[in-house]
Design brief:
This protein has 315 residues and is α+β, with helices and mostly antiparallel strands. The chain contains eight helices and eleven strands. Strand 4 and strand 5 form a beta hairpin.
C-alpha cells in the first residue's frame, strides 16, 4: 500500500469486536461528547446525589444544551438524531448513573414522545421546544400503587364537567415528579383510557418525593395526587385512545433503556477490572489469579455480545 500513512486510533480493549467501526463520525462525536459530560459533570457528583437522594433540576438544562432531550424526535427544537445515536447517548449516560439516563428517558421518550405522538399541534408548539432545551421538565403518570405491571386496571379517573375534565386519583413511582413543570397523566374515562397534560400549579395537583429508596437513588421519584384536579378540554391528548396510548410511549422508552443497560454493564466491568488490579491478596493483585481472569474474561465476552447486538439491530 502506497501513499501517506493514516494513524489508526489505538485499539479499545473493552470493545474487542470493534463495534465502534459500525458508527458514523457523527455518532462517534456524540459518544465522546456525552462520555466527557459524564466524566466531568456526573461522576464527580453522583456519590453526593446518591446519598442525598436527588438529581439536580439544573442538570436538565445541561442535557438540553447537549441536545440529549428528545434527541430522536424531529422538529419543535428536537435534533432528529438517528436511533443508534440516541442509544449511544443512553449508554454513556447510564455508564455514569442509571438515574441520569432515567431522567433523559422519561423526559424524551415518555413525556415528550406522548405529546409528539398523541398531542395536538398547539400542544407540540407549546411544550416541546421548552422540554427539548430542558427549561421545562416533564414526567409520565401511569403507574399506580396497586397497578404497576397492569396499567389497564388504573383507578385514576377523569370525568367530564362542562367543557373541562376533572381528574381524581394517585400515581406512584413517578420519575421527575416533584421537579416537573408538567405531567402526562393517564386516566380512565367513561370512554376508555385518555391522556392529559397537567401543568404544575394546577389546583388539586400535588407531588411529594419518595424518600429512603434502596436503589436508583440519584433520581427524583414521586407520588402524584389528583384531588378533583380540573383541566380544560385543551389539556387532553386528542389522538390517544385506549391503553395503546401509554403503551406506545413505554415501547419508545424501552429502546433507550436496553442501550443504557449496556452502559451500566461496561461501567461494572471497568470497575471490577480496576479493583482486581489494585486488590492485593497473597502478595499479588487478584487480577493475577486465573480464576479472577476467567471471571473478567467472561464479563467482557457478554458485554461485547450485548453491545454488538444492540448496534447491529438498530442499523
Amino acid at each position: 500500500m502506497t501513499g501517506t500513512a493514516v494513524s489508526a486510533a489505538p485499539p479499545d480493549a473493552v470493545d474487542f469486536l470493534d463495534v465502534a467501526a459500525l458508527l458514523s463520525d457523527e455518532e462517534r462525536l456524540i459518544r465522546e461528547t456525552v462520555r466527557a459530560f459524564v466524566r466531568d459533570r456526573v461522576l464527580p457528583n453522583v456519590a453526593d446525589w446518591f446519598e442525598r437522594g436527588i438529581l439536580p433540576r439544573e442538570l436538565g438544562r445541561e442535557l438540553g444544551r447537549l441536545g440529549l432531550l428528545g434527541m430522536h424526535l424531529d422538529g419543535y427544537g428536537c435534533p432528529g438524531a438517528s436511533a443508534v445515536a440516541y442509544g449511544i447517548a443512553c449508554a454513556e449516560l447510564e455508564a455514569g448513573d442509571s438515574g441520569v439516563r432515567s431522567f433523559a428517558s422519561v423526559q424524551g421518550s415518555l413525556a415528550m414522545y406522548a405529546i409528539y405522538r398523541w398531542g395536538s399541534e398547539e400542544q407540540k408548539r407549546a411544550y416541546l421546544p421548552g422540554m427539548a432545551s430542558g427549561v421545562k421538565i416533564g414526567c409520565f403518570g401511569l403507574t399506580e400503587p396497586d397497578f404497576g405491571s397492569n396499567p389497564a386496571g388504573m383507578r385514576t379517573f377523569a370525568r367530564r364537567d362542562g367543557g373541562d375534565w376533572v381528574l381524581s386519583g394517585t400515581k406512584l413511582w413517578i420519575t421527575n415528579g416533584s421537579i416537573s413543570d408538567l405531567a402526562i397523566v393517564w386516566a380512565q374515562t367513561d370512554d376508555g383510557i385518555r391522556g392529559f397534560v397537567v401543568e404544575r400549579g394546577t389546583p388539586g395537583f400535588s407531588a411529594s418525593d419518595i424518600e429512603r429508596k434502596l436503589s436508583l437513588r440519584a433520581s427524583v421519584t414521586s407520588e402524584l395526587v389528583f384531588a378533583d384536579c380540573r383541566v380544560p378540554a385543551a389539556a387532553e391528548l386528542p389522538l390517544a385512545r385506549g391503553l395503546g396510548g401509554p403503551l406506545a410511549c413505554l415501547n419508545e422508552a424501552r429502546y433507550g433503556i436496553v442501550w443504557g443497560s449496556m452502559g451500566a454493564a461496561r461501567s461494572c466491568y471497568e470497575t471490577a477490572l480496576e479493583y482486581a488490579k489494585t486488590r492485593v491478596q497473597f502478595d499479588r493483585p487478584i487480577a493475577g489469579f486465573q480464576i479472577t481472569q476467567e471471571k473478567l474474561a467472561n464479563m467482557l465476552v457478554e458485554l461485547n455480545k450485548g453491545r454488538c447486538w444492540r448496534c447491529i439491530s438498530a442499523v
